[in-house]
Design goal:
100 residues, alpha+beta, rod-shaped
Length: 100
């Protein structure tokens, strides 16, 4: 819910009110009690992003993150197996090759 600024046109009192967007503007001034208050048009509040939680992956559950980590570790372990040994190549015997 947003915070709205109000001003009384009789006494000049200004205040903020936290209310729903669909709520009707208040008319009664809390200072003088007259029904001459009006809602002011504001510039809105600034948004400050601090900390983590701004990426889609930051909102994942712990169980999802653990499963993803296990999958990535299993995938990297499979890739490492092939790095230890050079790839085997088939050697063809030139004697057994027939000329066409």
């Amino acid at each position: 819910m947003p915070t709205y600024d109000y001003e009384c046109s009789d006494c000049g009192h200004r205040w903020e009110l936290f209310q729903s967007i669909t709520a009707k503007p208040k008319r009664k001034c809390p200072e003088c009690g007259r029904a001459t208050a009006r809602r002011l048009i504001g510039t809105g509040g600034g948004i400050i992003f601090k900390g983590s939680g701004f990426y889609q992956t930051d909102y994942r559950s712990d169980s999802y993150q653990k499963a993803a980590k296990a999958d990535s570790e299993a995938g990297s372990a499979g890739k490492d197996k092939g790095k230890d040994k050079p790839a085997e190549t088939k050697k063809t015997d030139s004697k057994n090759v027939s000329a066409a």
